[in-house]
Amino acid sequence: MKILITGGAGFIGSHVVRRFVTKHPEHHIYNLDALTYAGNLENIKDIEHAKNYTFLKGDITDAAYIQSVFEKYQFDGVVHLAAESHVDRSITDPMAFVKTNVFGTVNLLNAARDLWKGDYEGKRFYHVSTDEVYGTLGATGLFTEETPYAPNSPYSASKASSDHFVRAYGETYGLPYVLTNCSNNYGPHHFPEKLIPLFIHNIIEEKPLPVYGDGNYTRDWLFVIDHARAIDLVFHEGKNAETYNIGGFNEWKNIDLVKVLCTLMDRKLGRAEGSSAQLITFVKDRPGHDLRYAIDATKINTQLGWQPSVTFEEGLAKTIDWFFDNQEWLANVTSGAYQEYYQKQYVNE
Ligand code: NAD
Ligand code: DAU
Fold first, then answer.
1. What is the atom index within ligand 1 of the atom nearest the CA of 35?
2. By residue range, what is the domain housing residue 298?
């Protein structure tokens, strides 16, 4: 197949591109990415010369350009990850999220529909989404594929909207699709605006660790390579017009996770036990902060046989090691525009 992967220079997309290029020599992979602040070709440097790989620099909000690449390369499949992905940025600039996450997705759907012209044999549009579309949980319960959508942030509202468009194109035009909703990822190449890489970076630099509110918010963490494995499996074996939730049954309150991270970092840095925890600073809460996310991954476990390959302890250790071994990457992405973002976001710190 000729497969278009969008957002393949970003955090999750780079792991998906690497997996498809290396595990599937039978496919040709076209990685289309606008290289926003979150996109970085360094993330996929190891496979840039692979025979079955082509990079396309382009913006999914540009409808004419998207139509032209579909015509030129005649894709059979799409794995769509390109998005604005950070909740805090969506609170300060919602329209950027509408443009990329909603208009960009509809541009891709239109281009696929125009190219495939109702001949859907061997074709597939895979939309990568998030558990945040389900809104927030109370103290108990899990998100299943039947949980009604109730997004609370501009980011999750834009992702929910894109999910609805994908389903609508399936219902209205018969476009073959699969959709997955995954929990919080962590791992190598994670951009240091998100909790885990931001705190690893700040601990190294001995800067305050800005915990929002009282820190009693819960997230369900999955190692990014396990997400990429799930995407590979669902793309090849998932049933048409189905949704699969992806998660590792691995819930952590932010404050508990941060304390574990501090302990592991103290050991790694050879600092006295308890020194990183002294950097914890409670700051102004995120507006509309969802209390708890937790995924019920029974469907993908039982129907497709997927389960995480690493424990949280292993995944976190691999992640910390990666950030230590790649401090140049960290220094590069935290220079320039990042500093400006940081000052604005953590002004009340
Ligand atoms: P990211 O922000 O790290 O990367 C996004 C990538 O998309 C970047 O390479 C960026 O350059 C590219 N991009 C952004 N706007 C674009 C545009 N207009 N045209 C072309 N490319 C553009 O994001 P991520 O964390 O890797 O998330 C990838 C996908 O997975 C997103 O759709 C996100 O909603 C979803 N998701 C993320 C998580 C998570 O924990 N990070 C969990 C579940 C689902
Ligand atoms: O659940 C999946 C989602 O996970 C993805 O769809 C998003 O793209 C991804 O960014 C992530 O969203 P979160 O908002 O959960 O991730 P973030 O790392 O921004 O925050 C995790 C938790 O940590 C959340 O409760 C907010 C809190 N937090 C975050 C930051 C950046 C802090 O307490 N302090 C911080 O500085």
1. 11
2. 2-188+220-250+294-311+339-345
Residue pair 132/290 in contact (Cβ under 8 Å)? The answer is yes
The region that residue 169 occupies, defined by phi over 0 for left and psi between -120 and 50 for alpha, beta otherwise, is alpha
- Please give the share of the chain, as a percent, with pLDDT higher than 90: 99
- Indicate whether 107 belongs to any domain: yes
What's the pTM? 0.98
The residues annotated with a catalytic role in the active site are: 131-132, 155
- Residues enclosing ligand 1, CB less than 6 A? 6-7, 9-13, 33-36, 38-39, 59-61, 81-85, 100, 104, 128, 130, 159, 182, 184-185, 191
Tens-place pLDDT, residues 165-224 = 999 999 999 999 999 999 999 999 999 999 999 999 999 999 999 999 999 999 999 999
How far is 111 from 117, CA to CA, in rounded Å? 10
Tally of domains in the chain: 1
